[in-house]
């Protein structure tokens, strides 16, 4: 009994079969958010140093925490008698908490920023006093200051409507849960706006480094 031999090679027409397309996934060189740890040397304005770093990188920055000490701090504190007034605290203070947001530069200089940059701190004084508020002047480091932050880019801005506006949108048939669009990106500083909070007038507070002993009875 003879066995039929199979022909060698590819069967006829096998090379002409369509092949599945190859998809190449583009991987971004930078993630949408990246952690950063910045070391600010002594005698440097921390607010201005972070602002220069963000402008040079062209990124947005969300400061999460900071450690170190600063000297002679000017803060804007809410006061019903004098809104926007500032107060200057002289001496050395330890950083307890920092909250700051730096928005990336706009793609077009004509766009106006819907949100302003801000920088707020909580500090511990030499006698255990706790102060805080919006930074309204230079925040000069008194030693090395370490800042932990996360970068971001191309943020989108959405205005959340009030309850009355949501009902009107639902009745008009424009769709529920849609926030009114805002052109441009969230950005600030394009018009030379200072990172320091604006102020009207001010006063000084000087604290001694050592507490005085109580008088003997």
UniProtKB/TrEMBL annotation:
Alphabetically ordered keywords of this record: DNA-binding, Nucleus, Transcription, Transcription regulation
GO cellular component assignments: nucleus
Location relative to the cell: Nucleus
Tagged with keyword Transmembrane: no
Recorded GO MF terms: DNA-binding transcription factor activity; minor groove of adenine-thymine-rich DNA binding
Domain PPC intervals: 30-173
Region of interest (Disordered), ranges: 1-20, 164-194
Annotated function: Transcription factor that specifically binds AT-rich DNA sequences related to the nuclear matrix attachment regions (MARs).
Protein name in the entry: AT-hook motif nuclear-localized protein
Species of the source: Capsella rubella
